[in-house]
From TrEMBL:
InterPro entries: Plipid/glycerol_acylTrfase. This is Phospholipid/glycerol acyltransferase domain-containing protein. Residues 112-263 form the Phospholipid/glycerol acyltransferase domain. It comes from Chrysemys picta bellii. The lineage of its organism: Eukaryota, Metazoa, Chordata, Craniata, Vertebrata. It holds the Pfam family Acyltransferase. The gene is TMEM68.
Length: 359
């Protein structure tokens, strides 16, 4: 540090610009030993920045969702669609959004699907393990649409349908030069109208059982995670299935006379993790039924989705027995393809493996 009576340019050896800047700040603020304080701040940033990042990165998923919403609205506007629209018209939009998610899947997670040929040409009920977020399922939907040109209707938790869903109508009256109104327009699109359009275009439904059976009888694929939000938030790196005594999905398969197709994604809990092990968050969820458990991660670990052998329709077994078979099939996929307990570093290293475990 230079002496108080010296200038930054005095002496035979010029003082560094950083030392000069610190000296000027000390003179300006009247704070002595400012360099020590700055070193302390730099140390705190070095320690806590990685922690902050792992809680911010999951926001990329939300960003992709809103980009998807914007693409759908642009597509809707371009084709001059009103409230009523047909599935055929929306195929181009689905292809566009699927390409977006498939690109993210390949770049960020080296995503692969194994066993896609096991999905029947006709209807079927896809049953899958629910990670902290369903991002692996989004990737699967993208692959299914790109490679098979097929949709898969999805049964979602009730809280998804409580998101604001008013129609977006301000866009057509916005002048391009009015930046304030453009900003208001985009906020309205994202928070008020976006999710409803996204859910409608991609066939997300709340149920009930009759609606699921109807979709299956019409020849569609339907997907459900029996563990739902509880499994997402409160399972852990041991990949414990949190199904309780749920048999409704099995009864749907029986009533529709369709096979159940088990599915599991390797390392899905290493990509994003939750703080669901903290008792307070479990109590809050059971009280409010809202997923208020913090998540962190979005680590670029290897994702591989494995599709198991379909469980064929059997009129001689009941819903409880079929549910047990489906649970055993998912557990078999976990045992076969997932190292327990899951480890983030190992999952990262699997991005560089040239061989995989046998399908």
């Amino acid at each position: 540090m230079i002496h108080r009576n010296e200038s930054c340019t005095s002496g035979q050896v010029p003082t560094s610009y950083l030392c000069c800047l610190i000296y000027i700040l000390e003179e300006w603020t009247g704070v002595e030993y400012l360099e020590d304080y700055l070193n302390y701040v730099a140390y705190l940033l070095w320690v806590f920045t990685p922690l902050i990042i792992v809680f911010i990165l999951p926001g990329l998923i939300l960003l992709l969702l809103y980009i998807s919403i914007i693409l759908l609205y642009v597509y809707k506007r371009k084709n001059e669609l009103k409230e009523a629209y047909s599935n055929d018209i929306w195929d181009g939009a689905r292809q566009m959004v699927a390409t977006l998610w498939d690109g993210h899947a390949r770049i960020w997670h080296g995503y692969e699907v194994h066993g896609l040929e096991k999905i029947p040409e006709g209807p079927g009920l896809v049953v899958f393990y629910h990670g902290a977020t369903p991002i692996d399922y989004f990737y699967f939907l993208a692959k299914l649409f790109i490679l098979k040109n097929r949709m898969c209707y999805t049964v979602a938790d009730h809280f998804v349908f409580k998101l604001p869903g008013k129609s977006f109508k301000q866009f057509r009256s916005i002048a391009l030069v009015d930046l304030v109104r453009i900003k208001s327009c985009l906020e309205s699109m994202a928070w008020k109208g976006g999710f409803k359009l996204l859910l409608d275009v991609f066939g997300v439904m709340h149920g009930p059982k009759e609606e699921c059976v109807k979709a299956l009888k019409n020849g569609h694929l339907v997907a459900i995670s029996p563990g739902g939000v509880r499994e997402a938030l409160f399972s852990d790196e041991n990949y414990v299935l949190v199904w309780g005594n749920r048999t409704g999905f099995a009864q749907v398969a029986i009533d529709a006379k369709v096979p159940i197709i088990p599915m599991f994604t390797q390392n899905v809990r290493e990509g994003i993790r939750t703080l669901g092990g903290i008792r307070l968050f479990r109590l809050i969820y059971e009280r409010l039924r809202l997923p208020l458990v913090p998540i962190y991660g979005e680590f670029p670990v290897k994702f591989r989705t494995y599709i198991g052998d379909p469980i064929p329709y059997d009129p001689n077994i009941n819903a409880a027995e079929l549910s047990g078979k489906a649970k055993a099939a998912i557990q078999s996929l976990i045992d076969r393809h997932q190292k327990i307990p899951g480890n983030v570093f190992r999952a990262l290293m699997e991005r560089f493996e040239t061989q995989q475990k046998e399908d």
